[in-house]
Amino acid sequence: DAGVIQSPRHEVTEMGQEVTLRCKPISGHNSLFWYRQTMMRGLELLIYFNNNVPIDDSGMPEDRFSAKMPNASFSTLKIQPSEPRDSAVYFCASSFAGGAYEQYFGPGTRLTVT
Amino acid sequence: SQKIEQNSEALNIQEGKTATLTCNYTNYSPAYLQWYRQDPGRGPVFLLLIRENEKEKRKERLKVTFDTTLKQSLFHITASQPADSATYLCALDNSNSGYALNFGKGTSLLVTP
After folding, report:
1. How is the beta sheet containing A5-7 ordered, strand by strand?
2. Which residue of B has its CA nearest to A43?
3. What is the pLDDT of residues A30-49, one digit of tens each?
4. pLDDT tens per residue, range B2-57
5. Among B32, B46, B106, whose Cβ lies nearest the Cβ of A103?
6. Which residues of chain A neighbour B93 with C-beta distances below 8 Å?
7. Is the Cβ–Cβ distance between B62 and B48 less than 8 Å?
8. A51 Cβ contact partners less than 8 Å away, ≥ 6 residues apart
9. Which of B85, B50, B46 is nearest to B64 (CA)?
10. Which of A82, A93, A80 is nearest to A36 (CA)?
11. What gap in Å lies between CA B78 and CA B76, rounded to an integer?
């Protein structure tokens, strides 16, 4: 398996633009997680899905953020409109559900909003 | 609120010595705790998982302890090597979300020859 795949790897956009980050989890995993990492706040959970259903989105900072998982092999995280404070590295991770399983992280998307 | 604390100061040690990293937590009763390694520009990579009823777990040169009374986990790397230089993150199960994890900010380890 290729592991968790994220695209794009880098994104530079202007304030106010829409940004869409993409993730393909490991085949067979039924939990998917979106995280954001900054120096100040570390790695923060934004939202997670179990069997394509959002379970906890309490970490999503504002209504400008939305996430979808239309099927077991694809998820998107959208920011509209983007702001400079959204600049961070966004990670997607997947795992088996139902207990204490390790998470497999993608390489991340480095987002810069100018 | 739930808090996970890892030493924010980098840990510098000499090759061959044992590195010990600390993870303290408050307002938590985690069922398990995990340790991850993160290299610059990469996503975290899972290393070890220890459950609340386990006191110690080992994997090759790695050892993790879990003291639920002290609310602390220690992560040891014996016979450390320069290749062990990275940031190490501890993570606890998220009491609100079952299978999600809350991560500490990590401790940077530098092993010098």
Report:
1. A5-7, A19-24, A74-79, A65-71
2. B103
3. 999 999 999 999 999 999 99
4. 899 998 889 999 999 999 999 999 988 888 899 999 999 999 999 999 998 998 99
5. B46
6. 100
7. yes
8. A30, A72, A97
9. B50
10. A93
11. 6
